[in-house]
Amino acid sequence: MNGSEEKIKLEHEAARLFMRLYEQRFGVAMRHIWHNEPARPDVSCYYDEHKLDLEIAHLYGSEAEAMLILGRDLGDKTHKELMALLRTPPQHRLLTALNCLIGNKADKSYQTDRVWLVIRNANPLWTRRDILQHLKALHMPKQHPFEQIWLIGDMQGQSGIVALYPPALSALEQG
């Protein structure tokens, strides 16, 4: 499987997982997904019989961590970066990585009326609890194209989903 096929597979897995978890939590039907061209969000589906686009992202922490988690060859330079990175406590990297990911996605524009950002935590060193502890310190850009932002707490979805935006949704998570 090449990198592009692997990316599409990961996006579809994350979208299906999110849709199932969202449906279980809120009782709103989410059905039928299809992949989009690059100018549009990654995946489209039906949310309670209305079209909804999902931009999918995976939270690894760093390129070196992503390569390690995906089982790719690190190379000498990346291996050294990873060793230095691993000396930093994972919780310190979490907020930086999450803010960076959301900031990068916020700068994009999408050809759609309605888009949610779905982030799947792919770093086994971070837990849903870690994410909830850092929720108040999360930097949400003032301008972004997302109606809602969600995080799947782990690769398998066992810890559920966490609402990051809008503030009314994320306040429910804290309390």
Brief synopsis:
This is Orphan protein. This protein has 175 residues and is an alpha/beta fold. The chain has one domain (3-174).
Number of helices: 6
Structural class, from helix and strand content?
alpha/beta
Rg over alpha carbons = 16 Å
- Considering DSSP H and I runs of 4 or more, what fraction of the residues is helical? 40-55%
| C-alpha geometry | globular
Topology order in helix (H) and strand (E) letters: HEEEHHHEHEEH
Amino- and carboxy-terminal Cα gap: 43 Å
Task: State the domain count.
Answer: 1
Q: Could you report the average pLDDT, rounded to the nearest whole number? A: 83
Let me know the number of strands: 6
Q: Oligomeric status of the shown chains?
A: single chain
Largest sheet: 6 strands, mixed
Beta percentage is 15-25%
Can you put this structure into words, describing what you see?
The protein starts with a helix and ends with a helix. The protein has six helices and six strands, in the order αβββαααβαββα. The chain has a six-stranded mixed beta sheet, sandwiched between helices. It has one domain (3-174). Helix content is 43%, strand content 22%. It comes from Rheinheimera baltica. This is Orphan protein.
Task: List the SSEs and their pairings.
Elements: H1 3-26, E1 30-35, E2 43-47, E3 50-59, H2 63-69, H3 75-86, H4 90-106, E4 115-121, H5 128-134, E5 148-152, E6 161-165, H6 167-174
Parallel strand pairs: 3-4, 4-5
Antiparallel strand pairs: 1-2, 2-3, 5-6
Protein name: Orphan protein
Organism: Rheinheimera baltica
